[in-house]
Amino acid sequence: MTYADCSSIDDMIHHILHGDFVAGLISGLPELHLEQYLNLSSSTVVSLRSMFMAPVHSTEIVHGTTEPSKSSQDLSLAVDAAIVRLQADGKDKEAKLNNMPFEFTVIHTCRTDDPSVFITPNSAAATGLLRTALDDKSLKVGASGTLRLGRQ
What we know:
Layout: H1 9-17, H2 32-35, H3 73-88, H4 91-98, H5 128-136
Helix pairs in contact: 3-5
């Protein structure tokens, strides 16, 4: 099989059920109506999640954005500072408890005992995508996957 033959989780499960694939790996669980046909097992592998943002163009980052309004420099500083503070306050563990049976593993890629070392940009002087988010009072983030709430 080629990648073109498997462009979605549904395609992969179709190929597993028809014997084309021996197994498949997804992040999360298959749709409820398909679980009865599959043997599920946790890989016990931690799958890190990342948020990708456009860097500022430079000689080192030639693929970066040249439009100042699309720069993520201030936004990435603000996101890092927010994540570190949430982790320091235990909000990540609180989110786990509020979303059981969510399997949660603590991974601090920005671990610090002093969150103040992650400086939050001054909102009045914010630029690029952070300026847009503050002005519009919204932050649009794309994600891939299926959200299923209330699952037991």
